[in-house]
Design goal:
Elements (H helix, E strand, L loop, with lengths): L4 E5 L5 E5 L2 H10 L1 H16 L3 H7 L1 H8 L12 H28 L1 H20 L4 H29 L5 H26 L6 H7 L2 H10 L7 H6 L3 H12 L5 H15 L4 H5 L5 H16 L2 H6 L1 H7 L4 H25 L5 H26 L8 H19 L2 H12 L2 H33 L2 H20 L11 H4 L12 E2 L2 E2 L9
Antiparallel strand pairs: 1-2, 3-4
Helix pairs in contact: 1-7, 1-8, 2-7, 2-8, 2-10, 3-4, 5-6, 5-7, 5-22, 6-7, 6-9, 6-10, 7-8, 7-22, 8-9, 8-18, 8-21, 15-21, 15-22, 15-23, 17-18, 18-20, 19-20, 19-23, 21-22
Membrane topology: Multi-pass membrane protein
Family: Belongs to the major facilitator superfamily. Sugar transporter (TC 2.A.1.1) family.
Keywords: Membrane, Sugar transport, Symport, Transmembrane, Transmembrane helix, Transport
Length: 511
């Protein structure tokens, strides 16, 4: 539904006019389906790797080890090839994100999303129909390319079509769809676990549904005005700006956009420009947020939730049901972020979550250290308490580091380095997601309950980083971040003077 007229600050205090139009909402929902693809895959892989039929077909040694009597609780699933099934996707996404950056700049955000859906559909066909391990891994690599392209294009698309006053809420549609995808995947796994012998094929095959929605839906939505003007489609860019703002009074915003794109076109090597001193604040924060996001331990829990719950004593069905519960919490808490991010601000949400995540991770570690050894199981009451703590941890992550890890990098880079800078953010996320996915089961085998203290220690580090180095970006137009954010920050302002030049992007386009 269309919202009322809003105004947002522009250059020199000029107000931009616009409203949340029905068309913008539709564009946002379609684009954010890229997050649905990503989330479904995060949720589905952990459940599938806990299914007996899947393990028998591809990882018989893991299956045999898991059913052995008195097998070490923490080491049931410790297998590097099994972990590669989950992690290979993120390695492919890491590489793909840099190619996606160039496609995003040269051909637009919309085309990049279409390419993402095509690769993802190809990966679904291979994984769901896999007859041998090599087909499974190649399929995961194709899925990873799709994820790399989608995660590059979708947050940029959402940030660029949103009115500044609602940029945070609209951008979080991506993360909301990630959580919905995880939730749907958990339900699918719960329903297919007893469908023998091909339940796992149904689970993997249904990943094609969000990919088809993105593929067909992206034919119906517009390109962003930023991308159109950047590629010198000026009349079309202005027309689309009027359409998404719901008003003809877009002259001030359009003029600012044209000027920013003109300056960006002078930058012939955006990745090289990204290495300049003036780009360091945005780049450091973009990469750091991805590292911290993964070292909260969230994806270790989301990838392997059924495995984790089986470790503490749940049966297969109960562990999958517990994963469904955490999925519900994940979705609901992300919705909370949609309503709070543009009112209370980014920094408050990040810091509040750090406190809650530290308490819950530490508590889980203590409970497991005291109550779970290599061969016993937790009592029902203690096991339920662990699930509650996991839900509290997921809750705090979902309204903070989950969505803001994508939002803040998408809104802080100037246009001339935006696609390149966000490519570094995506690739960093994929790299550390790969590391966690590949290492978690082995870490759990080696560190046992200590793995939760490991993640808690990282949360302490990210808390201090947030306090001192992450600025508040609520309500600041994207193209005014330099003057209103970076030049005002106690530490980052020193990077805004490079050889005496104005580093807002004007007059320094040397390559």
């Amino acid at each position: 539904m269309a919202g009322g007229m809003i105004v947002s600050g522009g250059a020199g205090g000029v107000e931009y006019e616009g409203k949340i139009t029905f068309y913008v909402i539709i564009c946002g929902i379609v684009a954010a389906t890229g997050g649905l693809m990503f989330g479904y895959d995060i949720g589905i892989s952990g459940g599938v790797t806990a299914m007996d039929d899947f393990l028998k077909d591809f990882f018989s040694s893991v299956y045999n080890k898991r059913i052995e009597a008195r097998e070490n609780n923490y080491c049931k699933y410790d297998n590097q090839i099994l972990q590669l099934f989950t992690s290979s996707l993120y390695l492919a996404a890491l590489v793909a994100s840099f190619f996606a950056s160039k496609v995003c700049t040269k051909y637009g955000r919309k085309v990049t999303m279409q390419i993402a859906s095509i690769f993802f559909i190809g990966g679904v066909i291979l994984t769901a129909g896999a007859k041998m391990l090599s087909m499974l891994i190649v399929g995961r690599l194709l899925l990873g390319i799709g994820v790399g392209f989608a995660n590059q294009a979708v947050p940029l698309f959402l940030s660029e079509i949103a009115p500044v006053a609602y940029r945070g809420a609209l951008n979080i549609l991506f993360q909301l769809n990630v959580t919905i995808g995880i939730f749907i995947a958990n339900i699918v796994n719960y329903l297919t676990v007893d469908v023998h012998p091909y339940g796992w094929r149904i689970s993997l095959g249904l990943a094609g549904v969000p990919a088809m929605i993105l593929c067909l839906g992206s034919l119906l939505i517009t390109e962003t005005p930023t991308s159109l003007v950047e590629r010198e489609y000026f009349d079309e860019g202005k027309k689309i700006l009027k359409l998404i703002r719901g008003t003809d009074n877009v002259e001030a915003e359009y003029k600012e956009l044209v000027e920013a794109c003109s300056e960006a076109r002078e930058v012939k090597h955006p990745f090289r420009n990204l290495m300049k001193r003036k780009s360091r604040p945005q780049l450091v924060i973009a990469i750091a947020m991805q590292v911290f996001q993964q070292f909260t331990g969230i994806n270790a829990i989301m990838f392997y939730a059924p495995v984790l719950f089986q470790t503490i004593g749940f049966k297969s069905d109960a562990s999958l049901f517990s994963a469904v519960v955490t999925g519900i919490v994940n979705v609901g808490s992300t919705i909370v972020s949609v309503f709070l991010v543009d009112s209370v601000g980014r920094k408050f949400l990040l810091l509040q979550a750090c406190v809650q995540m530290f308490i819950t991770q530490t508590a889980i570690g203590v409970i497991l250290a005291v109550n779970l050894n290599a061969i016993n199981t937790l009592t029902p009451h203690v096991a339920v308490l662990v699930v509650i703590l996991v839900c509290m941890f997921v809750m705090s992550f979902a309204w903070s580091w989950g969505p803001l890890g994508w939002l803040i990098p998408s809104e802080t880079f100037p246009l001339e380095t935006r696609a390149a800078g966000f490519a570094f953010a995506v690739s960093s996320n994929m790299l550390f997601t790969f590391i966690i996915a590949q290492a978690f089961l082995s870490m759990m085998c080696t560190m046992q309950s200590g793995i939760f203290f490991f993640f808690a220690a990282w949360i302490v580090i990210m808390t201090f980083f947030t306090v001192f180095f992450i600025p508040e970006t609520k309500g600041v137009p994207i193209d005014e971040m330099v003057d209103k954010v970076w030049r005002q920050h106690w530490y980052w302002k020193r990077f805004m003077d490079d050889d005496g030049k104005d580093n807002s992007g004007v007059g320094d386009h040397r390559t």
